[in-house]
Amino acid sequence: MKKKQKSGSIGFISCLTLLLIVLKLTGKVTFSWVWVFSPLWLSALLLTLVFLTILIVGRIKKRSW
After folding, report:
1. Can you give the pTM of this predicted structure?
2. Cβ contacts of residue 39 below 8 Å, gap of 6+?
3. Burial of 56 (0-12, 13-18, 19+ CB in 10 A)
4. Does residue 13 sit in helix, strand or coil?
5. What confidence tens digit (pLDDT) does each residue in 33-52 have?
6. Is residue 20 classed exposed, middle or buried when 0-12, 13-18 and 19+ CB atoms within 10 A define those classes?
């Protein structure tokens, strides 16, 4: 029986964030650190919105407000 090995991979958001950090630290970009980390907080915001939408739709369908 073969065991499946999971290989660690980095996602698009992580790559983009790392790229922006490197560009900021090397002085290639001059915008704020808030925008450097924006891929992380924007994806967290999107995930929260999706979760809340699913929660609200589920409550509406069950009529359990």
Report:
1. 0.70
2. 13, 16, 17, 20
3. exposed
4. helix
5. 999 999 999 999 999 999 99
6. buried
